[in-house]
Design brief:
24% of the residues lie in helices and 28% in strands. It is an alpha/beta fold. Helix 5 links the parallel strand 11 and strand 12. The longest helix has 13 residues.
Length: 336
Amino acid sequence: MTTVNAFAATEPGGPLTPFTYELGPIGDQDVDIDVQHCGVCHSDLSMLGNDWGFTQYPFVPGHEVAGVVAATGDQVTHVEVGDRVGLGWHAGYCMTCDQCLGGHHNTCAGASGTIVGRHGGFADRVRAQAAAVVKLPDDLDARSAGPLLCGGITVFNPLVQTGLSPTARVGVIGIGGLGHMALKFMNAWGCEVTAFTSSDSKRQEALDLGAHDTINSRDPEAIAAAAGRFDLILSTVNVKLDWNGYLGTLRPRGRLHLVGAVTEPLDLQVFPMLMGQLSVSSSPTGSPATIATMLDFAARHAIAPQTEHFPMNQVNEAMAHLEAGKARYRIVLDRD
């Protein structure tokens, strides 16, 4: 039996305190990962507070894991002990449904979340199904790799799923934990990139991150002046906006793609969409194959999230820093 030292909450919104549990015998298709670094995602906060109604306590957050393989099951072949690996939102899949068999594991109805009904990566070890574990490229820095495995793939997956042209003109709404990585990926993809930001103080920072231009998202006239400009707009925010105003900035056959979890219904005017053959779509995290592609792309183009680091034993301070909106732009816990 392996004893895992973790940090867990025992009630919604409660503090994360030291917690130990025992891992049973490793399954034939499982991988145990010695956690070296773990990103702190806003989804960890949502799960901590049971905002989505399915958190189980004691709850160990952490689904942006970068570490080293400590043990493998007998049937695991693509990674071995000592390999540097990553683990994101999903810790396993059914492997038999049409989605899994078609390579779309991220939309498997039977997928298991790394922090849903199981203990996550705010710990010294985490276990997952081998299919969900992705090898890190040799020249990718493990210290900053964690946020790529959730936030990074969330904004990279639409580039793949929409077949985005490298000559496309794209806009990114919200330059934060997701949006700043979107700017980097889209710039390296070859696109002309515009950042929609509500903060004048972020204008130069957005340009430094990869944007070629910025638009004040609080200025309706500035948005209207961009009419017919973009092939794709990627929204990373979780608040209601004037979606029809943004649709007006799309070129014919353009797309508004949402990766921010907006909880309010979208108020859309269909006639302009019909006349311009516009689309509105969304997507979750990516499949293991797409995650591997993203990691290779990030390594090739030296793309890394902008991170702040806390030691693992300061997990509550890190969570409070994120909840206060002070993160610039992703937080990573480093193993003590």
